[in-house]
Specification:
427 residues, mainly beta, Neuraminidase, five-stranded mixed sheet, 5 helices, 26 strands, binds calcium ion
Length: 427
């Protein structure tokens, strides 16, 4: 293995030297079914974009409240409610950001570790929110002296007047967080069986993604109230899980899961994941499977301080180390786009866009609309469109959730005066 590794590294260097015009100088082939960047289409006039709110700072997720208002965690450490100024209106009625106000919710958050990607992250309202008022918010935490502590999911209860939130419990703690504040995930969402799914990042640690007993670089599947594993999780069902962590895991070998989407009418779970300098991935999650990320190269590289160097050499799906690793359904190749949230467009009102997988991107500052054909493991992404209305027209695009009106809502993540946007099919 070691000898082959050296050979592969030499070949990769040679390919950089000899084929400077190559699209992928690393020598890594894009996964089967990948569509190269130059094959993307660029539609115009299919969608309409409306600014709904402004003045945010990196809105990380979107929760639609029964009142018609919207709950948004802002990464630097604020949880906010966006509401129409005019009484009786709902967010779904808004046609101009001047019609809304952003109000901070009083909440006693643990001190977040705000660095790079760190801070307040993904959030999900519990399926019984109307009754329980419960939501779960993911965040980085810091030690009292400001060092990175962990990433955790905390369940809160929002007051009836939406002005404050009180802590219910730490739902899951101990997700890995490194000093750089990178690869933090963290996307909670409702799964196809009504469970809680969470996509996580490897926390910038060499060994977490392949360690089944570590919550980083995984897709987790848990109970909403206890944060514990469900009995039909793969390594609970087969009895192989030895720890509470391993019991919660349904897939591993991920680098930094940013989006988790359930395909309507199916039980399919799709994820979006940040690549290194190559290959942001779209994956279809198969319970119990390895998705092939291992910056430690099978434990061969163990110097954590060299993470950045080692990871660039690692393929996003290392078939050499893990022949059974699941190939991505689509990958960006080079350059990456920093794919973020993912969600399927649902409902007849979308017309020809119904069923597309909508994926935001940070670095690429665009929205992807992907055509998914076939079902289950046979499914393929057969086309990728970037509507011109959301191609560098705003800064980075982060959150994506479907509103009660069936429209797609997005947040921008430039860091200053960020927006909540509504995307609808053009009439
Ligand atoms: Ca992979």
């Amino acid at each position: 293995m070691k000898r082959f590794r050296v050979t592969a590294a030499v070949l990769a260097s040679l390919s950089v030297l000899l084929t400077s015009c190559s699209e992928d100088a690393s020598g890594n082939e894009p996964p089967p079914g990948a569509i190269k960047g130059d094959q993307r289409s660029h539609s115009q006039g299919k969608i309409k974009v409306t600014e709904v709110a402004e003045g945010l700072k990196v809105g990380w997720d979107i929760g639609f409240l029964p009142s018609g208002n919207v709950l948004v965690p802002q990464r630097p450490g604020k949880l906010s409610v966006i509401s129409p100024k005019k009484k009786g209106q709902k967010i779904t009625d808004i046609t101009d950001p001047k019609q809304t106000t952003v109000t901070d919710v009083k909440i006693d958050l643990p001190k977040p570790y705000v660095k790079a990607e760190g801070g307040l992250l993904g959030m999900v309202l519990h399926p019984d929110f109307e009754k329980s008022r419960k939501f779960t918010l993911c965040q980085t935490t810091a030690t009292p002296d400001g060092k990175p502590n962990d990433i955790r999911l905390i369940t809160w209860k929002l007051s009836k007047d939406e002005k404050s939130a009180t802590k219910v419990k730490d739902l899951i703690t101990g997700l890995p967080l490194g000093p750089t504040g990178q690869h933090v995930g963290c996307r909670p969402t409702e799964g196809p069986d009504g469970e809680l799914l969470i996509g996580t990042g490897d926390g910038w640690h060499l060994n977490t993604a392949q360690d089944k007993n570590n919550l980083g670089g995984k897709v987790l599947r848990v109970d909403w109230d206890t944060g514990k594993a469900l009995p039909d999780n793969p390594w609970v069902a087969d009895g192989s899980a030895k720890t509470e962590e391993a019991k919660r895991v349904i897939s591993y070998g991920h680098r930094n899961v940013q989006g988790v989407a359930v395909r309507p009418g199916t039980k399919e779970i799709w994820t979006s994941e940040h690549g290194t300098i190559r290959d942001d991935e779209i994956n279809l999650i198969q319970p119990g499977k390895n998705y092939g990320w291992d910056p430690s190269h099978g434990g061969e590289k163990t110097d954590q301080s060299q993470y950045a160097k080692f990871e660039v050499e690692a393929p996003m799906t290392d078939k050499e180390l893990f022949p059974d690793a699941v190939d991505a359904k689509w990958a960006t190749g080079e350059p990456t786009e920093a794919l973020c949230a993912a969600i399927f467009l649902e409902g007849k009102q979308w017309g020809e866009l119904e069923g597309k997988l909508a994926v935001t991107s940070l670095k690429g500052s665009k929205l992807f609309l992907m055509t998914v054909e076939g079902e289950g493991t046979d499914s393929k992404i057969t086309a990728v469109d970037v509507p011109k209305e959301l191609d560098w027209t705003y800064k980075r695009l982060r959150a994506a959730r479907i509103g009660p009106d069936g429209a797609l809502y997005l947040t921008t993540a430039g860091g200053e005066n960020d927006y909540l946007l509504r995307v609808e099919p053009a009439k």
